Amino acid sequence: MFEEFAALPVAESFVLINGHDPRHLRQEFDRDHPESYGWEYLESGPVWRIRITKLSSTDLPRKLCDVRAVVTNATAADAGGAVWRLEVGERQLDANVVHLPPGDQIAQHIGPDLDVLIVIVEGDGELLTETGTVPLVVDALVWLPRRSQRSITAGALGLSYFSVHQRRPALSIGSAPSRQRTPG
Predict the structure, then answer these.
(1) 10 Å Cβ neighbour count for 9?
(2) Sheet (strand 37-44) strand order
(3) Which of 124, 109, 111, 113 lies closest to 160 in space, CA to CA?
(4) Residue 127 and residue 136 in contact, taking contact as beta carbons nearer than 8 Å
(5) Are the beta carbons of 117 and 97 closer than 8 angstroms?
(6) Are the beta carbons of 72 and 78 closer than 8 angstroms?
(7) Cβ partners under 8 Å of residue 59, min gap 6
(8) How many CB atoms lie within 10 A of CB 49?
(9) Cα-flanking dihedrals φ and ψ of residue 52, to 5°?
(10) 125-129: long-range contacts at Cβ-Cβ below 8 A with a sequence spacing of 24 or more?
(11) What DSSP designation does 147 have?
C-alpha cells in the first residue's frame, strides 16, 4: 500500500477497496505522511471504498513534540529511559528523549557501531570515558563516537537529553549464510 502511494505523482490517487473501515491504515498514514495525503470515503460499508491522494512530492517538515513538556512529564512521573521516540516508519534517523532520575546511570558499555549526538535539555550529570569525565550540563552538545566506551550518570537534579543517530537496520529472520569449504 505504501509503495503504491510512494509511486504516485502529486495530485494522483488510487481507490482502496476493503471489507471494513481501515482505521489502522489511516493511523499509519497520519503518523508517516501527515498533511501529505488525502483520505476520502467514497463508500462506507458493507464494502469500503477510499480514495487516497498524494498531496506533496515528499513528506512535509513538521513539529514532532515539545521536548520541555516531554521532560516535565517524565520528571513528574519519575520515569526513566527513553520517554519519547521518533515513530515515523520510513526514516533514516532514530531520535529519542531520554530521562534519568537523580543518581540513575547508564552502565559502562561500548556503544553501537554508529555515531550518536546528544543535547542536554535539563539537569546535569557526567559522561565517563576511557580516559576521563565530561560534565553534562544544559545546552551541551556531545558527540559519542561509534564503538566508544562510556557510561552516563545523572546528577542530583536528574538528567534529560535528546539523542539522534543514523537508524539501525531492522532485524530480520532469514537463513544463515552458507559456508564454503576450501579444498585440502
Answers:
(1) 7
(2) 13-18, 48-54, 37-44
(3) 124
(4) yes
(5) no
(6) no
(7) 32, 33, 36, 88, 90
(8) 14
(9) -110, 120
(10) 125/100, 125/152, 125/153, 125/154, 125/155, 125/159, 126/152, 126/153, 126/155, 127/151, 127/152, 128/152, 128/153
(11) T
Which pLDDT tens digits describe the chain residue by residue (184 residues)? 888 999 999 999 999 999 999 999 999 999 889 999 999 999 998 999 999 999 999 988 888 888 889 888 888 888 888 898 888 877 888 999 999 999 999 999 999 899 999 999 999 999 999 999 999 999 999 999 999 999 999 999 999 999 999 987 665 565 555 444 444 4
Q: Which residue has the cell 502529486?
A: 10
Number of Cβ within a 10 Å radius of residue 70: 19
Longest dimension (CA), the chain: 70
Measured in whole angstroms, the distance separating CA 32 from the mean position of its chain's CA atoms is: 12
| 8 Å CB contact between 120 and 137 | yes
What cell was used for 154?
545523572
